[in-house]
Amino acid sequence: MNRIEIRTISEFDLDGDVQGHLQRLLCECFGGDYPVDRIYFKQKPHLRFLAYIEDTLVGHIACDYRVMNLNGERINVLSLIDVCVSSTMRSKGIGSQLLRKIDEFCHDRDIDYIVLFADDPDLYERNGFQRVRNRCKWLKINDKDQTTYGIGHEVIDELMVKAVGEKGWEEGELDLIGYLG
After folding, report:
1. What superkingdom does the record give (predicted)?
2. Cα angle at 35 between 153 and 129, to 5 degrees?
3. Among 10, 4, 6, 179, residue whose Cα is nearest residue 92
4. How many distinct structural domains can be found in the chain?
5. Helix (H) or strand (E) holding 24
6. Of 65, 42, 71, 77, nearest to 135 (Cα)?
7. Would you say 78 and 115 are in contact if contact means Cβ atoms under 8 Å apart?
């Protein structure tokens, strides 16, 4: 397999070509569940990690840098969204390479945890994430017309975290202070 190049790009710096490639990759990976008129699901992310082989986009992770509240304490979180690898390139280590690049990015930054929601935890568990059970509170957004329709409050089994520093994760209440991403 050819060498994988991982590029970090701010949402502000995406050009039309990259947006087109992203749209194709996201629709391929998420099928009919992904909006066809944009390159984000609920909100625009702050930055993206893009995996390329030669000039072909083969993998993606979007990231939001946000504050959340864990049991009354403010925590700084890098939230991972829309993790995907092209169907023809899966099981070749691209997802793990993207996650390692994000780990490097977090080093020496004001980030306490990396957080994500995963239906299939295998890739993330192999890369140091753990499933946690917290009662979560978040802003519910209708992804079709992008309107707010309420506040969610429940345990979400798909929640996974990875500590960046020395803080240990706690069970209890997690207020996402925003959307479920």
Report:
1. Bacteria
2. 50
3. 4
4. 1
5. helix 16-30
6. 71
7. yes
Question: What's the confidence (pLDDT) of residue 1?
Answer: 58
Contact 75, 19 (CB under 8 A): no
- CA torsion 115-119-125-126 (nearest 10°) is -120
* Percent residues over pLDDT 70 in the chain: 99
Give pLDDT tens digits for 31-52. Answer: 877 888 889 888 999 999 999 9
Q: Is 116 helix (H, G, I), strand (E, B) or coil?
A: strand
pTM beyond 0.90: the answer is yes
Given a cut of 70, whether residue 163 has pLDDT beyond it is yes
Handedness of CA 59, 106, 165, 172 (dihedral sign): negative
Check residue 31 and give its pLDDT: 84
Quote the domain boundaries for residue 28: 4-179
85 beta partners = 59
User: Residue 155 maps to which CATH number?
Assistant: 3.40.630.30
For residue 99, the SS3 value is: helix
In the chain, DSSP assigns E strands to 4-10, 47-53, 56-70, 73-85, 113-117, 130-131, 134-142, 147-155, 159-163, 172-179
